[in-house]
Amino acid sequence: MKDLDISAAVAALHRGGVIAYPTEAVWGLGCDPMNEAAVMRLLAIKQRDVGKGLILIAAYEDQFDALLDWDALPPDRAEDVYDSWPGPNTWIVPAHGTVPRWITGDHAGVAARVSAHPTVVALCQAFGGPITSTSANLAGAPPVFTRERLDSGLIADLDGVVAGETGGDASPSTIRDARSGQVLRA
Q: 0.90 exceeded by the pTM?
């Protein structure tokens, strides 16, 4: 599998490519979330249903401004989200009405996270916005914590793998509902 530096990974994303990259805990699959063909390709590679929606990951919260309806949250709830970032905390935030279903799935919100992982930050900064962040495994399979454990069949369908290591966290990001604060995945 072709190793990609940040520049080559961003070029692949802009061409509609799908890449693997390290996050705080696990390896993720990324593509341009606004490119429907790229998202559908990612879902096919992963064998994941579009109805489940996707997590988006960014370098900083402003990268979500066009997607998230912060005004739909009470100020204290929005403050909880901001205070948890950057880090391995994913929040389901109400989506603007223009966010496509291939991102939200069957939900009214977007699963969003601002990462503290230096590779992710560099990737999203160079890309100029958030990218998808779903675990680099077939749907239903356990997440992959090391590059060596990436499924060879899955990565053969990718445009490359971004060089790097995960941040060493023991589990994937916590997912919470931004309206209620309820933990959906510990």
A: yes
